[in-house]
Amino acid sequence: MWEKGFPAELKFYWLHFDWQKQPEQHGLHQALLHLPQHTRVGDPACIIALFRQFLSEQENIHRSVALACILLLILQQLAAPALHEDVVDSPGVDLAWKANQLIRTQYHLALSTSTLAKTRHCNADYLGRVYRRVFCLTLTEALHRQRVLMAEKLLIGDKLPLTEVARQCGFNNVGYFRQIFRKHTGLTPASWKRRYCREHINS
């Protein structure tokens, strides 16, 4: 019997750790984070970046407190309530989600606040306000984050020249692409590729 497999772009990450219950005499209360058994995170790009940082730090010979800090940040992201597309309490929220869908699927095109507003037949300032209220980001910031996320995937998976990576992610200028990439990742595209190009395998 044929069974439908996982989507080709789906990736799995595993972290193995021990949870030690602190003695009551330390004056520590129970964990403040409530972790659901399964959830939809509000910022997948942030989770992916934290996982990569954890795996990179794990390879260091001298272990540091950084691993525990990164793990705590991951758990915090998982515990944070995520926005859901089906929660529509005003016309503005629905408009923001539709703009977000365009950013996620058409990031490689010449998108801007004005072009997004034009496709949704609304005022650019109004769209910017409702989007920021829903996603806590400006439209430009969201577009840059999506483009950088896709650039990260291309830098890892394909041996493309930097100009082609930039072009496929919606950047016409390589210098501007480097500037935005470094702003969002803290690394140049070349440095990022050297750090994360090798596959991390959990066994």
From TrEMBL:
Tell me the keywords, alphabetical order. DNA-binding, Transcription, Transcription regulation
The chain positions of domain HTH araC/xylS-type read 97-195
Please give the Gene Ontology molecular function terms for this protein: DNA-binding transcription factor activity; sequence-specific DNA binding
Matching entries from InterPro entries are given as: Homeodomain-like_sf, HTH_AraC, HTH_AraC-typ_CS, Tscrpt_reg_AraC-type_HTH
Q: Which Gene3D superfamilies is this protein grouped with? A: Homeodomain-like
Question: What is this protein's name?
Answer: HTH-type transcriptional activator RhaR
Tell me what organism the protein belongs to. Pantoea ananas (Erwinia uredovora)
